[in-house]
Structure prediction request, 732 residues.
Amino acid sequence: MPKILKKEKLNDNVSRIVVGAPHIAAAARPGNFIVVIPKENAERIPLTIADADTAKGTISIIFQIVGATTKVLDSLKEGDELAHLLGPLGVPSHIKNYGTCVIIGGGVGIAEIYPVVKALKAAGNKVITIIGARCKDLLIYAEELGAQSSELRITTDDGSCGRKGFVSDELKDIIASGEKVDYVMAVGPVPMMKVVCDVTREHKIKTMVSLNPIMLDATGMCGVCRVTVGGKTRFACVEGPEFDGHEVDFYGLSDRLKPYKDMEKVAHDHVCKMLQGTSD
Amino acid sequence: MQERPASERVRDFQEVPLGFTPEQALAEAKRCIQCKKPLCVKGCPVEIDIPAFIKLVAEGKFADAAQKIKETNGLPAICGRVCPQEEQCELECILGIKGEPIAIGTLERFVADWERENRESKIENRESKIGGKRVAVVGSGPAGLTCAGDLARLGYQVTLFESLHVTGGVLTYGIPEFRLPKAVVNLEVEYVKSLGVEVKTDMLIGNVHTVQDLLKDHQAVFIGSGAGLPKFMKIPGENLDGVYSANEYLFRINMMKAWQFPDQLTPVKVGKRVAVVGGGNVAMDAARVSLRLGAEEVVILYRRTQDEMPARKEEIGRAIEEGIIFKILTLPLKYEADDKGWVKTALCQQMKLGEPDSSGRRRPVPVEGKMFNIAVDTVVVAIGNSPNPLIPHRTPELKTEKWGGVIITPEGETSIKGVYAGGDIVRGAATVISAMGDGKLAAKSIHKIISA
Ligand SMILES: Cc1cc2nc3c(=O)[nH]c(=O)nc-3n(C[C@H](O)[C@H](O)[C@H](O)COP(=O)(O)OP(=O)(O)OC[C@H]3O[C@@H](n4cnc5c(N)ncnc54)[C@H](O)[C@@H]3O)c2cc1C
Ligand code: FES
Prediction:
């Protein structure tokens, strides 16, 4: 079973783990994700591969503690094993020399853009990275992304770090400054991705978004991850998770994220009780 | 065969038919007239020597009877439960002309269960004459398990790759516990492992290794990746909350054990009024599962009539007994939501039977102007599954039919030399026994080519 080799907290709610999984590390490309079942009774949850080290045979995963299963995952320590780990999944990002790219990450989406930024830079692009969060404490990976990007811009809702405002404001400024933007990619909460797409649509800039619908098997067998793209139903787990943002039905996507909210709370409380019971 | 009463069984997930006692099995086996030219064998896709095993049962030699079946069928406990015997062996039984055919399926189940409970853990003798020849098998459904088991018995070093975290394919994630106990499936998988097959779960072939990668360190590859792609009707409202594909619904319940929420963390929402669209085994399973999870009313919406339903007669009967409502000649046109985006009504078209179509079944046609609403809070779309497209997508050299089925030769070989395929990935959603038959054939062909 894949072992957690390293674990660190990036902030109160976000953790990073490095897991030994040589076959996944060898096959992973930027944009791929994995499914993890941290303990046998937990859900199958999809998480982006934030980095892969072929030589060491490891992958890094960054996750926010949002529900019961991420809580279980976060309860595991260095040296513990994951019950199941499947990957790499999904279609990798299309990496080539576009020219100037603006890569945008919001919230935990910041971690997800890291491998893409790295690869686009290596492919010879000028990469302007914009990251945004509610406040300074929730910003993650700024240093790492700064090191990989041609330019890093930061926004926070409360102005505690970087510009006070949204990532889309920064994007608008870049475009207004006369910078010729050839390619945009946005990863983060649905409203953020939607706003970014609204901005770039006006300027006809190709924009990819990485979608985060509910997933179950994540191998194309159940259809829970279906999203409407260009009027057609697509399975995000095998045909995505990246799609042309100008064609995505974001309203449909956010509706399909809701159905288990109430049950998630029950499960979360149940897990908290169990974890309390097992700790000394 | 005795069954648990409907009122009792709809409250749990335990098995419905109780099977034979040894006395009942003896009595049933003695009814067999041991035809010189047994027609039942012709009705069996894997040609089990049915009269021979029944004779052994009649003599009380249950272990020998099990061995006899296992000569041709590695998974009798499963086939005895889920094969459509009424269309196969039992349909051909001479005794069926005047009275009841021999209950071949129930006898098969009895023998397999008896053997399982009394099995001595003996190590199979698999002296390798093959000398380290390696074969990769993709998918741990009945096709893959059979192919892997047969090759291992011949002395091959077999690695079986399964993308999910549990083995068994549809036997595990699709067919519910009350029809096929998972303990039965697990034991059959353990048996295949005991033959020396190395099982690797959480391995999605196409992504982690391609088929071409596998060919580099294996002499042959067998693809048994099934028909896991759920079909939708492409009607308005199908993406509303509360509308599930049967695969999603059954996967949550059977594979992720959502019926034990929150001890099991995967949720499922089964409403009070569930509509299941379709008339096959999958639809029956989804409907009967819903009852067991507390639905007050479960309706099956089917566009033809009960006679045309592809589900096994036995299971249709059990569904009716349990209180499932059949709304035949009914075709959903669109689903509407409440103000929270949750499905609330199914607008349906009244159908009637018209002229026979190419399949010989009378084609359902709409009755002009007759439409009606059904109140629902859960919809399960069970109109069929297509071959899993992932491996064909990632393997451009692999030729497929327009509808997605992988094309094979009569020997089971695909358009790529050394790569074989069988089961639902070739046939589209079919049966357990046909998948096993394909797995057997491929194992035979692989052995012939490699040992030549
Ligand atoms: C709800 C339901 C009820 C049914 N009832 C009956 C019945 O009563 N009687 C009957 O005879 N038949 C029944 N069937 C049909 C029967 O189950 C199938 O025909 C049979 O299981 C097909 O076997 P298979 O081995 O081809 O594929 P599956 O059983 O589908 O197995 C395929 C396996 O391959 C795995 N896989 C797929 N892609 C990959 C990949 N890329 N890499 C690795 N692994 C992969 C899948 O996860 C799966 O485990 C039913 C089907 C369903 C869904
Ligand atoms: S998660 Fe099941 S098909 Fe995508």
